Amino acid sequence: MVISYTWFVVPLLIFIITLAITVVFYSTAPVDFPIHFDMSGTVTDTVAKSPRVVLLLPMMQLGMIALFIFINFVIARSKQTVENENPTDSLKRNMLFRQISSKAMLIMCTIMVIDFLIMQVVTLLALPAEWMMVTMIISVVLILFGTVLLAVKVGQGGSRLKFADQPDGVNKPIRDDDSFWKAGVIYFNRNDPALFVEKRFGIGWTINTARPVAWLSFVIIIAVIILISILF
């Protein structure tokens, strides 16, 4: 239902390229290494160059890749939501939704990793900061456009997908789990072994708050982010 994890070799190769460029050009990088820029591209803060400082962006790339691999895992292992009204059609929609979402996450991951690569090159070679700003804007626009397109054309659970026998799609799935949704946004069901479920509103997935392991996964992600910020 989701893309193979081997596809994440693509952003991983970009990470390796970034790391190689960092090693090659470390000696010629600015001694006062820029770490903050304003909206016009002017450097607002610098720190003394060190291996730890220049490795920040590559490590952020690696963390980003790991995060998206985890998201792909969530998509694959999340609870299968099936409508009572038309279970066969619902299953088909859900499988397509997962496949499309998985591909979208890979594309998003690749865009962000490329963005970090360009940021690193601009910083190491003291190139015009405007290049970095333009790249960031393009990345944000592409990601936002893709997210909107996914919501409009695919919909949550594939609700907007059009099949030959149902050209208008199914926009209002029939569900029987109302009692487990607190305020319509928090899923709490002790009898459901699923750790991840589709959101009731919007698009994407959320956790089953009744499962401690689901919370643990997010604690680990936060801990890794904090660890990277401390070490680099």
Explained architecture:
The chain has helices at 9-25, 51-54, 56-77, 87-124, 129-154, 212-231; strands at residues 32-37, 43-48, 181-182, 186-187, 196-198, 205-207. The chain is mainly alpha-helical and 232 residues long. A hairpin with a 3-residue loop joins strand 3 and strand 4. It is elongated and about 65 Å long. The two termini are 37 Å apart.
In summary, what is this structure?
By secondary structure, the protein is mainly α. The protein is 55% helix and 9% strand. It starts with 8 loop residues before the first helix and ends with a helix.
Break the fold down into its secondary structure elements and pairings.
Blueprint: H1 9-25, E1 32-37, E2 43-48, H2 51-54, H3 56-77, H4 87-124, H5 129-154, E3 181-182, E4 186-187, E5 196-198, E6 205-207, H6 212-231
Antiparallel strand pairs: 1-2, 3-4, 5-6
Question: How many strands, what sense, and barrel or not for the largest sheet?
Answer: 2 strands, antiparallel
Count of helix runs: 6
Element string (H = helix, E = strand): HEEHHHHEEEEH
The separation of the N and C termini measures 37 Å
Poorly predicted runs of 5 or more residues: 167-174
Structural class by helix and strand composition: mainly alpha
Pfam family, one: DUF1648
Keywords: Membrane, Transmembrane, Transmembrane helix
Protein name: DUF1648 domain-containing protein
